[in-house]
Amino acid sequence: MLIKQLSIFIENRTGRLAEIASILADNNINLRSLSIADTSKFGVLRVIVDDPYSVEKVLSDLGLAVSVTSVVSVKMNDQPGSLAAVLKVLADNNISVEYMYAFKGNSGDAYVVMRVDNDLAAQNVLTKAGFKGYTEF
Amino acid sequence: MRYFNEHEETMSRDEMHALQSERLVETVNRAYEKVAPYRAKMDAAGVSPDDIKSVDDLAKLPFTAKQDLRDNYPYGMTAVPMSEVVRIHASSGTTGKQTVVTYTQHDLDVWAECVARVLTAAGATNEDIVQVCYGYSMFTGGLGAHCGAEKLGCAVIPASTGNTARQIMMMQDFGSTVLCCTPSYALYMYEYMRDNNIPIDSIHLKYGIFGAEPWSDKMRAQLEENLHIKATDIYGLSEVCGPGVAFSCSEGNGLHVNEDHFIIEVVDPKTGMPQPDGVPGEICFTCIDKEAMPLIRYNTHDISALHHEKCSCGRTLVRMDRITGRSDDMLIIRGVNVFPSQIESVLLSSGNVDPRYLIVVDRKGTLDEIEIKVEINAAQFTDQIRGLEELQLKIKKNIESVLGIAAKITLVEPGTIERSVGKTQHVIDNRKI
Q1: Which tens digits make up the pLDDT trace of A48-80?
Q2: Which of A93, B31, B229, B340 could make an SS bond with A125 (beta carbons 3.0 to 4.6 A apart)?
Q3: Among B274, B303, B328, where does a domain finish?
Q4: What is the rounded distance in angstroms from the CA atom of residue B198 to the CA atom of residue B202?
Q5: pLDDT, tens only, B170-194
Q6: Are residue B313 and residue B345 in the same domain, yes or no?
Q7: What number is the ipTM of this complex?
Q8: Chain B residues whose beta carbon lies within 8 Å of the beta carbon of residue A10
């Protein structure tokens, strides 16, 4: 249920995202999911890839500021109310979500990726509540 | 009134030589006896106070650097007991370590007289109302101008900095005739009036005494034309006393140094040898009339040249050219001295072990702006925007507390600040003064 997310610091200027995307392409890195958080001056690109540590090395060797963070991934039915059920478990256990994003799988499933204030506790309570993670990319 | 102190300002070069020599010998003896760092330096250089018989022997003495003042923080350079110290000023240093200057009542009196000479040269008399818009703080600008104006018998308005609308209202209501501030702030006030349709004849300024930052003849012309004033250049630095060390006269050909109190030398930055008249070099001051903090051959790193021939204003005081630059990397931003090393030390103390940064200085309209671009490094990078914003804010606050000025902090990607071969360039100064 706990997976590694790669974060990349990017300056907020025209074309920079395109450059980063082509760096990923040139290194044959496939993105499973991504989100971007931005301020007026800079942004943080967060991606889920198959092999985060080797991608981290590739990108930091290229001089980018990269970090690997543990995030919680939960498999859900792709239907109304699924996300609410996941978040209720976390809320009931007083676990805060710092940010989240979601993506759709191949077989009618959906996945949510969350950065929480206590990832081990989140894994524990979600597992107890019957949720499954998504680790086999 | 042409001079505040006609005798001292117009004495013959021979008289000045004798006065400086007498005061120098006394100062060197006292510094050697009372201030351990001077004794150590002179001993190391093999110079004894007996070797100094006149101002011609000045070059035998070792130089003093800003670092000496920092190394002996706070009172190590003070030659008198604290019971005789009546004022302490300081300029910003690296984190927590400022350059401290102490004054006895005599020192304050000398300083006030020096500023009174400047005001008199500018045209002011005891009839004038002086608005002081320098900061009243550890910075010497505010209180320095203030006490000099009081010495002359002017009515002084201690307005200090900020709140331009209120500054202008005070000028209108109190009838200020003399303005003391940085030249860029004076221009800013003018633009504020223009943009807010405040007629220039609603204020009654006659003279402006501007200093604490470099300015040009072009700015002088602008200020004189726009504010309907006569502008005078005041020079000084806190280590020597504060504003009032030198000043421009009606002739506009350089700044007269109050050399009965401060001996000025211009030395070759490489060899340390005194330069002949007209040849630029680093300015050094020896304070020969200060009780609390005698200063011997203090290198300011300001670049200028000297002229000894008598000025047509009647003063015999040596003239220095307007400062044309620095021999080190110090920047003056809104009147505040800023060294890139101070910014580096803030970045280090903010948890950046190998700070890569670029200081970009610009003048937007009339006011200086400083932006510090800092490369984010892997150790400080976090996936959370909040964490990055907190880092930015922490650097901003630390810079503000160390330098006393607001800076814009921009986090940039690693490797984006250009590295030149050898020394990294830390400053881009886009100001056109």
Answers
A1: 998 899 999 999 998 899 999 999 999 998 889
A2: A93
A3: B328
A4: 7
A5: 999 999 999 999 998 998 899 899 9
A6: no
A7: 0.81
A8: 413
Tell me the chain A residues in contact with residue B382 when contact means C-beta distances shorter than 8 Å: 7, 67
| Residue B160 included in any domain | yes
Q: Chain A residue with minimal CA distance to B410? A: A41
Cα–Cα dist B193/A112, whole Å: 58
> Which chain A residues are Cβ-neighbours of B372 within 8 angstroms?
none
Token pair 């902090």 is at which residue? Answer: B409
B2 to chain A nearest CA, in Å?
Answer: 56
Q: Do B137 and B182 reside in the same domain of the chain?
A: yes
The total domain count for chain B is 2
- Residue A12 token pair: 């907020």
Task: Indicate the helix (H) or strand (E) that contains B231.
Answer: strand B230-237
Coil, helix or strand for B10?
Answer: helix
Together in a domain, B352 and B314:
no
Q: Which of these, B80, B99, B31, lies nearest to B286 by C-alpha position? A: B31
Residues B302 and B420 in one domain: no
Distance from CA of A25 to the nearest CA of B (A): 20
Which residue among A38, A64, A98 places its CB closest to the CB of B414? A64
B260 within 8 A of B244, measured Cβ to Cβ:
no
Any B CB within 8 A of A37 CB: yes
CATH number, position B385: 3.30.300.30
- B137: which DSSP letter? S
What's the confidence (pLDDT) of residue B96?
Answer: 53
For B26-42, write each residue's pLDDT tens digit: 999 999 999 999 999 99
Boundary (domain end) residue, out of B303, B328, B353: B328
Report yes or no: B117 and B258 within 8 Å, Cβ to Cβ: yes
Q: What domains are defined for chain A?
A: 2-69 (3.30.2130.10), 70-128 (3.30.2130.10)
Q: Are residues B94 and B177 in the same domain?
A: yes
What part of A 91-130 touches B (C-beta under 8 Å)?
98-99, 115
Are A98 and B384 an interchain contact pair (Cβ–Cβ within 8 Å)?
yes
What's B114's domain CATH number?
Answer: 3.40.50.12780
Interface mutation vs chain B, best among A4, A9, A64, A114, most B CBs within 10 Å:
A9
CB atoms B377 and A98 under 8 Å: no
Q: What is the spatial distance between Cα A26 and Cα A22, in angstroms, rounded to a whole number?
A: 6
Structural domain including B209 reads: 82-328
Query: Where is pLDDT greater, at B214 or A130?
Result: A130
Place of tokens 């011609």: B56
Residue to mutate among B374, B413, B417, with most A CBs inside 10 A, is B413
Are B156 and B190 in a shared domain? yes
Mean pLDDT of chain B: 92
CA-to-CA distance for B38 and B235, rounded, in angstroms? 26
Compute the count of residue pairs across chains A and B with CB atoms less than 8 Å apart: 53
| Angle at alpha carbon of residue B312, lines to B311 and B318, rounded to 5° | 10
Are B324 and B340 part of one and the same domain? no
Question: What is the predicted pLDDT for the residue at B275?
Answer: 95
Contacts of A99 in chain B (CB under 8 A): 384
Residues B387 and B253 in one domain: no
